[in-house]
Specification:
This protein is of the alpha+beta class. It is 61% helix and 10% strand.
Length: 228
């Protein structure tokens, strides 16, 4: 397996795998360490997680790499994961991921701590990849840009006092929990899905503002998402 990488901002790194299988199997333990309701902040083996997924999400099948098309993790969480998992042995794909991150940030722990790591696959179409990157960049900005987070939190507050929009908010929260997200990331996931929805919620005025907000902040932060 070969991993490529590209910085789209000084603190945002995109990891690129050839296919969804390699991508999913590279990020699975890191991503679930970040946001799994069962394994968040804990050490676990790949086999343990596969058993959990099959019983709770996969209906008897480990289809994790085909379910998720993009991944995102804050640099601070990445470092915590490395510190916990590395002494107990990282898998080959995880070692490649670690090496790529260290090379791109010159091994500077302080820089990595304030960075964001995104994962995408070359097996996605150009349109799919654009949407996936948009979704993951929304996550990156939510964690690395105080202005973007404040703007999203203000929009989320508006949604929850709007009778129509709040119905969508409740549906989204239920959907995210069913998908396997822990409650800590619900706001972040909600803004990311709404910010890169390709106009899916255009009939709800307040929700439609999320896309415009993301585009504005991508421009203001000079994030280059083309040619990935």
């Amino acid at each position: 397996m070969k991993i490529k990488s590209k910085k789209i901002a000084s603190n945002i790194l995109v990891i690129i795998c050839d296919n969804s299988y390699d991508l999913g199997m590279t990020f699975v333990r890191l991503q679930e360490f970040y946001e799994s309701p069962e394994y968040k902040g804990k050490y676990f083996t790949l086999e343990e997680y596969m058993d959990y997924w099959i019983a709770n999400q996969g209906n008897g099948v480990f289809n994790y790499p085909t379910v998720w098309s993009g991944f995102n993790v804050p640099g601070q969480v990445f470092l915590e994961w490395v510190n916990l998992f590395r002494p107990r042995m990282l898998r080959d794909k995880e070692c490649q991921l670690l090496r790529e991150v260290m090379l791109n940030f010159d091994g500077n722990i302080d820089v990595i701590r304030n960075s964001y790591i995104i994962g995408v696959s070359n097996s996605s179409t150009k349109i799919q990849k654009k949407d996936i990157i948009g979704h993951e960049v929304a996550h990156a900005l939510y964690k690395t840009s105080e202005k973007y987070k404040a703007s999203c939190d203000a929009l989320l507050a508006e949604v929850r006092v709007d009778k129509v929009a709040n119905v969508y908010s409740n549906i989204m929260e239920s959907r995210l929990i069913k998908m396997g997200y822990c409650k800590d990331v619900i706001d972040d996931e909600t803004q990311a899905y709404w910010s890169a929805s390709r106009g899916e919620y255009s009939e709800v005025e307040i929700i439609s503002k999320f896309e415009k907000n993301l585009k504005k902040h991508i421009k203001n932060n000079k994030i280059k998402i083309g040619n990935i």
